[in-house]
Design goal:
Elements lengths: L2 E6 L2 E6 L7 H8 L18 E4 L2 E4 L12 E3 L1 H4 L7 H8 L9 H16 L18 H7 L10 H15 L26 H4 L4 H12 L1
Parallel strand pairs: 1-5
Antiparallel strand pairs: 1-2, 3-4, 3-5
Length: 216
């Protein structure tokens, strides 16, 4: 192709004769030296390469750069730098929500979009009330961040950091009993408790045992 113009972190970049098969991730890392987004699995499974495109989170290893001429692209560098951290980045720092740090840029990009999704009342897979989803629930945060893997397993601290910012962003919203609040941080080896929807469904294991019992 001829010339491709990409708007990344509010700066325009022109690329001439770019191979149309080049992913957005490779353009940033290999052509533009924007190295915040990380190449983890290169299959869209780990979330380390997450960027925001027009405010939506996208696995940049799975999207071609030529598809985004004219789009507004934001990487971790556009969210905040060491001398000017965003509220979410500061929360990650305060809660020690990273260890090796490799997945952190993708985690923060994804969480930035998550906060906007919750503010717009978007439901998730575990949402029980589709009209009024409670985005502060542990299950909600965990589910919405499930596309971002932390191989150091800093998940409790990640959820605490996101919860802190969510509580600041959504002041005045009535929190349910399952909501994370100050003084009740998630800690230790942790997995999210089941949602109400999951609790209301009989397990397949119990169902199969009942059938087996009837046959006997």
């Amino acid at each position: 192709m001829s010339t491709l113009t990409l708007s990344i972190n509010k700066q325009d970049y022109q690329l001439d004769n770019l191979d149309p098969r080049t992913t957005l991730l490779d353009v940033c890392r290999q052509h533009l030296q924007i190295t915040g987004p990380k190449k983890g699995c290169d299959h869209g499974q780990c979330g380390a390469c997450t960027m925001l495109i027009n405010g939506r989170r996208v696995n940049s290893c799975l999207t071609l750069a030529v598809m985004h001429d004219g789009d507004e692209i934001t990487t971790i560098e556009g969210i905040g730098l060491p001398e000017s951290l965003s509220e979410l980045q500061q929360a990650f720092k305060d809660h020690d929500a990273f260890q090796c740090g490799y997945c952190t840029p993708g985690q923060i990009c994804s969480a930035t979009a998550l906060i906007e999704e919750i503010k717009q009342n978007w439901p998730s897979y575990v949402t029980t009330d589709l009209q009024n989803p409670d985005g502060l629930l542990v299950q909600e945060i965990s589910e919405r961040m499930s596309g971002n893997i932390c191989r150091c397993s800093a998940y409790p601290n990640i959820i605490n950091a996101i919860s802190q910012v969510l509580e600041n962003e959504i002041k005045g919203k009535t929190a349910s009993k399952a909501t994370i609040t100050k003084g009740s941080d998630v800690s230790g080896i942790w997995s999210p408790p089941p949602s109400e929807a999951q609790l209301s469904k009989p397990s397949q294991h119990k169902a199969s045992m009942t059938v087996a019992g009837d046959c006997s």
